[in-house]
Specification:
The chain is an alpha/beta fold. The protein is built from 11 helices and 9 strands. It folds into 2 domains: 141 residues, 3-Layer(aba) Sandwich (Rossmann fold), CATH 3.40.50.1370; 147 residues, Rossmann fold, CATH 3.40.50.1370. Bound molecules: N-carbamoyl-L-aspartate. The site of N-carbamoyl-L-aspartate has 11 residues, from helix 2 and helix 6. One of its GO terms (biological process) is 'de novo' pyrimidine nucleobase biosynthetic process.
């Protein structure tokens, strides 16, 4: 594996499977009453969050702590970033503090890539602008494999605001590498210009895609990133691209429904569908900790056994 995790496009099939299999081993630890492993004792993980986040930040923090790393949480609000300090100066400060890994979320696509040229430790992309969110895609793949037993050959629909979604790009690249067939479903205005070069199919018709899908991954409509009118109204969007009870009924019996959160209940997904037993939304959050433990372990401590000595 490479030293940094910036894009799922950098992962080979073997890299990706190693992360998922390591996460599977680590999931056993999460079921114990004492969840902590000594694996990353003495290592420092810095969480550098320039953009709001609930689950991703908490999840990385829990993952690093369960591996006994020292964790430093840094959020742009209340730091010298609000006084205009640059990403580079912030990075050099972290470097001086001896960070072994920097987990970064930033509103600018490409920020983790730049950061990787300035620090000696590993950089983990926790979401950069509209570009990528690799650990989200890994936890999604992990969640699918746990529910359905495989990824190879599965038909996966990724539905909604693809244009603004880093989750969509990371998932398309990873799921393709792992042998799944992905179809993006969105109105033409919510697809990126270069989507034709992505390894997936495109459809504008959710009703045609649903009956053929094993997994339906709904994306949040990212109103905070919209600077123009991409669809006539929320109601109209929901009518054509929302997953409500009627559409859910058209899925085959084993199909599952996913969402990375946070959800706009009633817009891209109805509350009834989100809370159904075939929705993996809560599992995705729990699996996020395990998958991030696997990523931190493989980037920082890779040569020692993950669970050795703690049994
Ligand atoms: C996603 C994100 O921040 O990219 N959320 C997450 O990490 N769980 C998706 C979103 O914001 O819609």
């Amino acid at each position: 594996m490479k030293r940094h995790l910036i894009s799922t496009g950098d992962l080979t099939r073997d890299d990706a499977l190693l992360i998922l299999d390591t996460a599977e081993e680590l999931a056993r630890v999460s079921q114990r009453s004492i969840k902590k492993l000594p694996t990353l004792r003495g290592r420092t993980v810095v969480n550098l969050f320039f953009e709001d986040s609930t689950r991703t930040r908490i999840s990385f923090e829990a993952a690093a702590k369960r591996l006994s790393a020292d964790v430093i949480n840094f959020s742009a609000k209340g730091s010298s970033v609000s006084k205009g300090e640059s990403l580079k100066d912030t990075a050099l400060t972290l470097e001086a503090m001896g960070a072994d890994a920097v987990v970064i979320r930033h509103s600018a696509s490409g920020a983790p890539h730049r950061l990787a040229t300035w620090v000696r430790g590993s950089v983990v992309n926790a979401g950069d602008g509209t570009h990528e969110h690799p650990t989200q895609a890994l936890l999604d793949a992990f969640s699918i494999r746990r529910r359905l037993g495989r990824l190879e050959g599965l038909k996966i629909a990724v539905v909604g605001d693809v244009l603004h979604s880093r989750v969509a790009r990371s998932n398309v690249l990873l799921l393709h590498t792992l042998g799944a067939e992905v179809t993006l479903v969105a109105p033409p205005t919510l697809l990126p210009v270069a989507v034709g070069t992505w390894p997936c199919q495109i459809s504008y018709d959710l009703d045609a895609v649903l009956p053929k899908s094993d997994v339906v991954m709904m994306l949040r409509v990212q109103l905070e990133r919209m600077n123009a009118a991409y669809f006539p109204s929320a109601r109209e969007y929901s009518r054509r691209y929302g997953l409500d009870r009627d559409r859910f009924a058209r899925l085959h019996d084993d199909a599952i429904v996913m969402h990375p959160g946070p959800m706009n209940r009633g817009m891209e997904i109805s509350a009834e569908v989100a809370d159904s037993p075939r929705s993996t939304i809560v599992e995705q959050v729990a699996n996020g900790v395990t998958v991030r433990m696997a990523v931190l372990y493989l980037l920082l401590g890779g040569s020692e056994p993950a669970i050795g000595g703690a049994e």
